Amino acid sequence: MRRLRKSVRKKIIIGILAATVQVLLFVVCRSGAGYVSEQKYQALLEEKEGRIKAAARTGYVTLREIKAGERFSEENVERRQFLSEQNPEALATVVVGSIACADLREGELVTKSVCTDKEVLPSERKCVFYQIDHTEKFEEYDVVDVRIRYANGENYCVLKKKSLHKLPSDTEVCFFFLTEEEQLLMSAAQYDAEVYEGARLYLVGFREERLQEDAVSTYLPTLQVISQLCTWETGYVSEQEEWCRLRRELEERLTRYTEQRREGIL
Q1: What number of other Cβ atoms are within 10 A of residue 31's Cβ?
Q2: What angle separates helix 180-195 from helix 223-232, to the nearest 10 degrees?
Q3: Residues 6+ apart with CB under 8 A from 70
Q4: CB within 8 A of 188, min separation 6: which ones?
Q5: 134 conformational bin, left if phi > 0, alpha if psi -120 to 50, beta if neither
Q6: Distance from the CA of 94 to the CA of which of 10, 45, 75, 215 falls in 20 to 30 A?
Q7: pLDDT at position 28, please?
Q8: More confident site: 121 or 178
Q9: pLDDT tens digit string along 133-147?
Q10: Which has more confidence, 151 or 74?
């Protein structure tokens, strides 16, 4: 009887110890799993917080639709804090008073590329060009000069500090918004590029157009264009004789160069 009691007591003790061990193992495993999960969650939370902080931006958002040529004001844009992966260097920091150079939808971020300090002139028109070299090497809204290089090495600036626009379907095609005077200058430059063998129209860019001065060399348009400009542009009337003289001299140099090339002198 005493042996039986001892056996039962032993079994009870063993059972209690086994249950205790299982409970301890369960508690330890659960605690360990909870700790691992907590660490993973904490790392994930820190990553999310880091991404949120990195995406914090301050900039201007349009309050309504804005058309190209419209001036930014406190009525159509608002400064806000928001989350975005947009490059902060691309966001406009000073907007009010500048002019939109592209159509903008309501709620759109205002970037530096769509802002300009230049007034939109009534005579400006959208002009598309197909034969300007190096267009594909520039980005949309880059500020560029359009220059012409003749085969004899002479080089002139036709258009100065123009915002470049490109067609999505063809990166080699570009367009500018040009005044009547600029349209006539480009027409004369296109004529030269077709008539004088080796003449090329091409683009050059700026490191920072707001800090750099205009090009010095000025294009000498054809006599017909000079005559047209003189009919309504007073600045050309006073210099008409000088412009015509310089243009004739240019044509003589180009003709002489072409003849020398054909004769094998050059």
Answers
A1: 10
A2: 170
A3: 76, 99, 100
A4: 219, 221, 222, 224, 225
A5: left
A6: 215
A7: 62
A8: 178
A9: 888 888 887 889 999
A10: 151
As a three-state string, the secondary structure of the chain is: CHHHHHHHHHHHHHHHHHHHHHHHHHHHHHHHHHHHHHHHHHHHHHHHHHHHHHCEEEEEEECCCECCCCECCCCCEEEEEEECCCCHHHECCCCCCCEECCCECCCCECEHHHEECCCCCCCCEEEEECCEECHHHCCCCCEEEEEEECCCCCEEEEEEEEECEEECCEEEEEEEEECHHHHHHHHHHHHHHHHCCCCEEEEEECCCCCCCCCCCCECCCCHHHHHHHHHHCHHHHCCHHHHHHHHHHHHHHHHHHHHHHHHCCC
The closest of 168, 172, 160, 192 to 131, measured between CA atoms, is: 172
Question: Whose structure tokens read 């110890």?
Answer: 17
CA 9 to chain centre: 86
Q: Which of 34-43, 116-125, 193-202, 204-213 has the lowest mean pLDDT?
A: 34-43
What letters, b where the CB count within 10 A reaches 16 and e where it falls short, cover 111-128?
A: beebbbeeeeeeebeeee
Q: How far apart are CA 162 and CA 164, in angstroms?
A: 6
Contact 105, 65 (CB under 8 A): yes
Task: Report in angstroms the alpha-carbon separations of 202 from 137, 185, 193.
Answer: 11, 14, 11
Say how far apart CA 109 and CA 197 lie, in whole Å.
47
Q: Between residues 16 and 204, which one has the greater pLDDT?
A: 204
CA distance 132 to 189: 11
Q: Number of C-alpha atoms within 13 angstroms, CB side, residue 140?
A: 13
> Residue type at 252?
E
Predicted structure pTM score: 0.58
